[in-house]
Amino acid sequence: MTSFTLTHWSLLLLHGLMSVALLGAVSHQTLGCWQTNSAAARTGFLSRYASAEGAIFANPVVLLFLTTFTLGALIYPEYRLGARYAIEEMRLLGIVGLFELKEHCLALCLGLLPLYVWAWRHPAAQKIRALSTTTLAAVLWFSFLVGHLVNNVRGL
Fold it and tell me: Could you tell me what percent of the chain has a pLDDT over 70?
């Protein structure tokens, strides 16, 4: 196992906490985008969860995304130089591939952020807002789960 310093542990913990906050905000928005207006749909837990005004989450989502992305970039060299080789030696190439896919998807989401912000600032762009938010949420959930899988396999 590679030597992970206290600074790396702190960055990893902060990265995880920021990602949980990001998932909460983008999940609120996504459910709000797709919520129906029928009376039956407004009575359950999910409708109450989705009832928060989605526009107020747009700027925090961008800030949390950029912060989490930056923290991930700071701890990435430790994964690339240490953990990845150990995972490859264990012949868990599917996990390495999932992490590679995570990297590419997050880079594409970084490019999606301007469209996402634009859609939340223009009320007429409801369909674009729903699709960009849903895409962002799906990639973030996928990335969160893959990150935990890699962390659990290697034990960083």
Answer: 86
Rounded to two decimals, what is the model's pTM? 0.85
Percent of the chain with pLDDT over 90: 52
- The answer, yes or no, to whether residue 41 has pLDDT greater than 90, is no
Rounded Cα distance, 27 and 81, in Å: 33
Query: Tokens 């999910």 label which residue?
Result: 46
Residue 2 Cα distances to 78, 80, 91, 92, 130, angstroms: 8, 11, 18, 18, 42
- Whether the Cβ atoms of residue 108 and residue 69 lie closer than 8 Å to each other: no
Residues in the chain: 156
Q: What is the DSSP string of 54-92?
A: GGGGHHHHHHHHHHHHHHHHHHHHHIIIIIHHHHHHTT-
What the block records as the tokens of 61 is 């989502």
